[in-house]
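User: Could you check the structure of this?
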Amino acid sequence: MIKPFVITLVAVVAAGVLAQAQTSPASAPTDPQIAMIVVTADNVDIAAGKLAAKKTSTPKVKEFAELMVRDHTSVNNQATELAKKLNVTPEESPTSKSLKSDGVKTLAKLRGLSGAAFDKAYINNEVTYHEAVIKAVDNTLIPNAKTAEIKALLESGRPLFVSHLNHPKDVQTSLQ
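Assistant: Sure, the predicted C-alpha cells are below.
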C-alpha cells in the first residue's frame, strides 16, 4: 500500500519543482516569480512539517518535522523582508501555482495515513522534495535571479536545503 502512494507522491512533488528547472530562457522566472516560488515552496514544507509534528509518535520524525517548520519559517521571513526592502511584490507563476496545488494534494494523502506508513511517506516525500528543490535552486532560481540580494538569499539558503536533504535520509534508514 505504501509503495504506490510514495511513487505518486514523488511524481507529483518532483513534477512541480522540476518543471521550473526545465524552463526555456524565454520562460525563465522573474525576480517577483522567484520570490513567490521560494515562499510557496517554504509554505508547502511548513504545512507538511506541522502535520507530521502532530501525527507522528516517532521522535526522529517529530524532531525533523519541527526543524522544517522552524527553518522554513525563518527563510520565509527573510524572503519577505528582502522583498519589502527591494520593493518586489511576489508574483504567481505556473510553478508557484503547481507547487501550492501539489502541496495540498500531498497533505491530503498524508492525512489519510497513520503510524509507520505516515512516517515513511512523510520522510520519503521530504527526501524527494528537497532533492527537487535543490535542483531547481541550482539550475533555475539562482541562474535567473537578476537582483544580487535575491541571488545571495538563494545561495545562502542552499546549504540549509542540503542539510534538510541529509537529515531525512538519515531518518529513512531508521524507518526501514
